[in-house]
Amino acid sequence: MRNQVLVVDDESFMRDALHQVLSLENYDIFEAENGKSAIDLFETHEFDLVITDVLMPVCDGITLFKKIRENFPETKIIFITAYVAKNSEMKLASLNPDGYIYKPFTINDILRICRTSLTNSGG
């Protein structure tokens, strides 16, 4: 079975770019423009991996992370962010995500972190 991956970002170009890159790995890719839309998708889908931006309107990535961890603890979560302030990095690390990557990133960076996360889940 193909891995189900949910990409969550308020910027459509970022969702599109990630969709194209992840298609190289033959994942089933879904998209949401914010954390609320992502949570709604969990009502009808199971995801192996969620790649989420941190800063988004309506429901941010940290709130989304907490809801997923609470209700779907087996789902792997990777943060993507453009903000590298020390306190932000420490906050993200303290949540213990399955990974995080900073924008701008390369195709190889995102593919590597996705493969690593999914391999560690047995996917």
Output the helix-strand order: EHEHEHEHEH
Biggest sheet architecture:
5 strands, parallel
CATH class: Alpha Beta
> What number is the mean pLDDT?
89
Q: State the shape.
A: globular
CATH architecture: 3-Layer(aba) Sandwich
Strand content: 15-25%
Q: How many structural domains does the protein architecture include?
A: 1
As residue ranges, the low-confidence spans are none
Strand order of the largest sheet: 2-1-3-4-5
Q: Please, what is the CATH homologous superfamily? A: Response regulator
Q: How much helix is in the residues? A: 40-55%
Task: Please give the number of β-strands.
Answer: 5
Protein architecture, described:
The chain is globular. A five-stranded parallel sheet has the order 2-1-3-4-5, with helices on both faces. It has helices at about 10-25, 35-40, 60-70, 85-95, 105-120; strands at about 5-10, 30, 50-55, 75-80, 100. It is of the alpha/beta class and about 120 residues long. Strand 3, helix 3 and strand 4 form a beta-alpha-beta unit. The chain has one domain (about 5-120): 3-Layer(aba) Sandwich (Rossmann fold), CATH 3.40.50.2300. The model has no long low-confidence stretch (mean pLDDT about 90).
What's this entry about, in short?
By secondary structure, the protein is of the alpha/beta class. It has five helices and five strands, in the order E-H-E-H-E-H-E-H-E-H. Helix content is 43%, strand content 20%.
List the helices and strands and how they pair.
Layout lengths: L3 E5 L3 H12 L4 E5 L2 H7 L7 E5 L7 H11 L4 E6 L4 H9 L4 E4 L4 H14 L3
Parallel strand pairs: 1-2, 1-3, 3-4, 4-5
Helix pairs in contact: 2-3
